[in-house]
Design brief:
By secondary structure, the protein is of the alpha/beta class. The protein has two domains: 2-132, no CATH class; 141-329, Endonuclease, Chain A. The chain is built from eleven helices and 15 strands. It has an eight-stranded mixed sheet with strand order 6-14-13-12-7-8-11-15, with helices on both faces. A five-stranded parallel sheet has the order 3-2-1-4-5. Strands 9-10 form a two-stranded antiparallel sheet. β12 and β13 form a beta hairpin. The longest helix has 21 residues, at 300-320. It is elongated and about 75 Å long.
């Protein structure tokens, strides 16, 4: 994961070490920066910089000394370009869409309020970085036991545990997500409603699933009303963001039926052993799965797996092609491309 940091934000981060308010998390954030994230310094490594004792000591303690760093980058051009604002994320690529921005600019509030990215002004560096942890400690993983309601009583538990972050995109891989639409209000619709809570932007939703389902009670194959289901999703998200989202279904073609159930967002990956239909209409747990894993993409290995997952999603979409039988919706995403 990339982090872009301006000089004054770096100086502010260094000084936060002596702030009692951050005594419990500064070291964890520093360790994350150095071990997990790729730092893009929004300034050049000049002789003048190395004559600045405060910054020079930081680089020496970071193990970089006065030599060139292979791990971190120094800008020849500031990114994102200034001034930042509501339109800054408009042309982000995949890497930029999952990056962290610690920047010193008058448009920071407007950029942050779009709700697509983790953005911090000067003196907000620790507060932004600590949100990448799954809990208060240096932990990038949260595990829920789905066979006890005490562990995961409702979808809102994700919000209670501070696991909902800004986003521009949601990618759902769950072949059975449409099989029990009578439970959709309390499952996929509720989950999407929670995920977009901080978004004030046009969210891209892509759902990969089976198009037809076998009804064992009727001993026949059935096809859900996907158009109606899509409009339910649009209405739920629009109610939260005040902006109509892009919603696309990509249906399994042939024998291409991925087994894994995952939900990807800009900064998190949710993995489930069972379909995401966890609750019935009375809030009772009905899933046969044992666990829900939530993984922060700030951890290097999680980020690398997310890249693999996105590449698999791209292959899935390529196999589906441009046929309306296989793809329904807006065909918009910051992370994958749809065949024309």
């Amino acid at each position: 994961m990339e982090v872009y940091i301006d000089k004054e934000n770096l100086r502010s981060f260094i000084r936060a070490r002596k702030n009692p308010q951050y005594s419990d998390c500064y070291d964890d954030c520093y360790r994350m920066l150095k071990r997990q994230l790729h730092i893009n310094y929004n300034f050049a490594k000049t002789k003048e910089l190395l004559n600045d004792d405060e910054l020079k000591n930081y680089f020496i303690l970071s193990g970089q000394g006065n030599g060139d760093s292979e791990a971190d980058s120094y800008a020849t051009e500031i990114f994102p370009s200034r001034h930042v604002g509501m339109n800054t994320p408009a042309n982000f690529n995949r890497k930029h869409s999952s990056a962290v921005y610690l920047i010193d600019d008058e448009g920071v509030d407007s950029f942050r309020d779009v709700g697509t990215s983790l953005v911090g002004d000067v003196k907000e560096e620790i507060d932004v970085l600590r949100r990448l942890f799954c809990g208060n400690d240096y932990d990038f993983h949260k595990l829920y036991n789905l066979q006890t309601k005490k562990s995961f009583p409702k979808w809102e538990q994700l919000k209670d545990d501070n696991l909902l972050l800004p986003l521009s995109d949601i990618i759902v891989m769950d072949r059975y997500v449409g099989a029990n639409q009578r439970y959709a209000t309390y499952n996929i619709l509720k989950l999407l409603e929670l995920l977009v809570e901080q978004a004030q932007n046009k969210v891209n939703v892509v759902i990969l699933c089976d198009k037809h389902y076998y009804n064992k009670y009727k001993n026949a194959e059935e096809t859900p009303n996907w158009s109606a289901f899509r409009h339910k999703i649009i209405n739920v998200i629009r109610e939260k963001t005040n902006i109509e989202p892009n919603v696309t279904f990509v249906f399994n073609s042939g024998n291409n039926h991925p087994h894994d159930r995952m939900i990807f967002t800009n900064y998190m990956l949710f993995r489930s052993g069972d379909s995401f239909n966890y609750f019935d209409n009375n809030g009772n747990l009905i899933t046969q799965g044992n666990s829900l894993d939530v993984n922060s993409l700030a951890k290097k290995s999680n980020y690398e797996f997310a890249e693999y997952f996105l590449n698999e999603v791209q292959k899935f979409c390529d196999a589906a092609g441009a046929s309306e039988d296989n793809v329904m919706g807006d065909k918009k995403s910051n992370y994958i491309q749809f065949p024309e």
